């Protein structure tokens, strides 16, 4: 059994939908039991966001989610029609028709569960189900969407429920050592471990959505990234596998980047740890992701400066909740930043990577504002306009080209 997911560019035009349907038809004729999941046509989600935004409705508004869900409604029906044209029986399914049950806020919901009985019935009747990704409903029937890249999560969850493999078809032939749009010499990886893929995704490599990888890891769903732009059988792709299944030993697997980061500093916070706890609790409640936390002693005795980075798009929201939660603390923000990250399971054994990262970026005259490490990752906060140079320099320095 295979769940095949097609992203926005893979269903971006009638021709692309036809080509994707051809790949599904080919697999079905080879005897695979196929279920398809689709994103909205490329550009559609942004277009709809713009329309809702004209009325001041942003991500996080019930009505924005109702509008957004229309994108996948269109593409799922078109894909079903394309499969029919290719001589197969197919039928579209919207989130509420399974249903896919979600919890969490509009625009950033999580999948709480799903019922695949209607899909099983369709499959038994020889019909290929085409599921609208990115959407579900709450227990009370409200339409919800899953956030950017959410169709990857729809696909992983469907694959778990259907006990299928999860094939993610996109516009690149797998997971590369870095974004091939930034470094044309990036190489495709045959395999990548869940944990490395998680770090790459969390640090900005949008080829797979972070939560979908978490889900696949937790539920043991085999996941593969493939190109929908090649002919059937021509895509080599990348398998996302457990660390033990990686044959090739390498220090670094990839370089990721995230543009448009901001750094917030809280000056004069008390050094009692409940201050920091209150700060991060209020941000978590507002769904603001926080990274690269630094706490330093301030000149004023008993006080500290607390600094951390967030995505620029969360800045207004973060400042609003912090001004509420942190009275008597001065809050400042720096924008125009980016994050570059080097990811690899081999970093566990190598303490000198921080030094070499400083050296590589230093050679390029790129200032490192903050450095953060985890077991298998090292990230630097730099200026936005240096990000492509930084990615290419690190990619070469760690022998990835
Ligand atoms: P889809 O619409 O199919 O979900 P995305 O745009 O979300 O596709 O993800 C695919 C894109 O991810 C590629 O076009 C590529 O520019 C980008 N990307 C970033 N990092 C990587 C990487 N390490 N390997 C492959 N692609 C990457
Ligand atoms: Mg995507």
TrEMBL record:
Keywords, alphabetical: Amino-acid biosynthesis, ATP-binding, Kinase, Lysine biosynthesis, Nucleotide-binding, Transferase
GO BP terms: homoserine biosynthetic process; lysine biosynthetic process via diaminopimelate; threonine biosynthetic process
Classification via Pfam families: AA_kinase, ACT_9
tRNA processing as UniProt keyword: no
Record carries keyword Nucleotide-binding: yes
Pathway: Amino-acid biosynthesis; L-threonine biosynthesis; L-threonine from L-aspartate: step 1/5; Amino-acid biosynthesis; L-lysine biosynthesis via DAP pathway; (S)-tetrahydrodipicolinate from L-aspartate: step 1/4; Amino-acid biosynthesis; L-methionine biosynthesis via de novo pathway; L-homoserine from L-aspartate: step 1/3
InterPro entries, per the entry: AceGlu_kinase-like_sf, ACT-like_dom_sf, ACT_Aspartokinase, AKii-LysC-BS, Asp/Glu/Uridylate_kinase, Asp_kin_monofn, Asp_kinase, Aspartate_kinase_CS
GO cellular component terms, semicolon-separated: cytosol
Known EC number: 2.7.2.4
Swiss-Prot/TrEMBL catalytic activity: L-aspartate + ATP = 4-phospho-L-aspartate + ADP
GO MF term list: aspartate kinase activity; ATP binding
Family: Belongs to the aspartokinase family.
Protein name: Aspartokinase
Phylogenetic lineage: Bacteria, Pseudomonadati, Pseudomonadota, Alphaproteobacteria, Maricaulales
